[in-house]
């Protein structure tokens, strides 16, 4: 089934970590561009936008390089089968205090960050360079950014890029594709993957987003387990579970955010046939 034109809640509810792809069906270039276009609009502190991505079309790779990239991910089935691999990195240079100053000054210019709250170009520079306290109403960037160590920039760049990945997986589903995030490479292969992809030394590997048309059904055996709402979300303090209104739950079911849980009937057979199709053992031990 082609999945298109879904509303937001259905996109979120329909996403699965796809582990079986139609390895023979290429993905349209436009759909990959669509994913990248969406990634640009992820939010992040100071509008730093530290994410970088290298799109790799599996079938255009030199066979030896393809094997090396697959070996780096331990030959996981989804990676072998997916025709497009989006390698996502974080650039810590984009999260240095100077970058923050430049981009927040731009946010003042475009009217996003209100001067009414105390933001000004001079205050931003004073706070970052000389730790001058910011007025109430403006973020306390003097504490956050003055003398920021390089390791902290790396952490910020990495965590903001992880956030962007949460958006790009939804973009893939919205485009009617299956997708899954994996580690770019086992730790001792990361440097080699960076070399193969020609990325600058200082970029940090985040995740590789595998993209293709799913070989499993859209439901992929049902929604995967989640921890109970009440032991995850609280109000006021961490001892008081957030009161979950059954009416909202019903709405979420109607809007297809909440779907039938895994395992759906027939999933074992589906997995058996997929394994047979791709030449994997049909029933390995638990
Ligand atoms: C950053 C990240 C890395 C992941 N790495 C793998 C992986 O290497 N292999 C795999 O089979 N699944 C991987 N997954 C999928 C998770 O196991 C999956 O998201 C989780 O079981 C929840 O299922 P769902 O995404 O279908 O809701 C990864 C997921 C994320 C977000």
UniProtKB/TrEMBL annotation:
Keywords associated with the record: Oxidoreductase
Domain Nitroreductase: 14-213
Pfam families: Nitroreductase
Coiled coil residues, start to end: none
Source taxon at top rank: Bacteria
Family the entry assigns: Belongs to the nitroreductase family.
The protein, known as: Nitroreductase domain-containing protein
Organism: Sporichthya brevicatena
Organism lineage string: Bacteria, Bacillati, Actinomycetota, Actinomycetes, Sporichthyales
């Amino acid at each position: 089934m082609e999945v298109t034109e879904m509303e937001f809640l259905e996109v979120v509810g329909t996403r699965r970590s796809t582990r079986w792809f139609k390895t023979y069906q290429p993905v349209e270039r436009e759909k990959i561009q669509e994913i990248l276009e969406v990634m640009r609009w992820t939010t992040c502190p100071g509008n730093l936008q530290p994410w970088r991505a290298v799109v790799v079309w599996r079938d255009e790779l030199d066979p030896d390089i393809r094997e090396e990239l697959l070996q780096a991910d331990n030959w996981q089935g989804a990676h072998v089968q997916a025709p497009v691999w989006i390698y996502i990195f974080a650039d810590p240079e984009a999260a240095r205090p100077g970058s923050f100053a430049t981009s927040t000054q731009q946010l003042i210019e475009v009217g996003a960050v209100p001067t009414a709250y105390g933001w000004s170009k001079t205050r931003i520079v004073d706070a970052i360079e000389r730790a001058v306290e910011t007025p109430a109403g403006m973020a306390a960037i003097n504490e956050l950014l003055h003398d920021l160590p390089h390791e902290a920039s790396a952490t910020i760049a990495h965590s903001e890029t992880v956030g962007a990945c949460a958006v790009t997986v939804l973009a893939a589903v919205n485009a009617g594709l299956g997708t899954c995030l994996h580690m770019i490479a086992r730790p001792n292969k990361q440097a080699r993957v960076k070399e193969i992809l020609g990325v600058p030394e200082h970029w940090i590997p985040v995740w590789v987003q595998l993209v293709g048309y799913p070989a499993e059904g859209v439901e992929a055996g049902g929604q995967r387990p989640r921890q109970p709402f009440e032991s995850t979300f609280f109000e006021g303090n961490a001892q008081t579970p957030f009161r979950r209104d059954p009416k909202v739950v019903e709405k979420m079911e109607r809007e297809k955010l909440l779907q039938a849980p895994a395992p759906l009937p027939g999933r074992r057979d589906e997995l058996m046939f997929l394994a047979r199709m791709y030449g994997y053992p049909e029933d390995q031990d638990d």
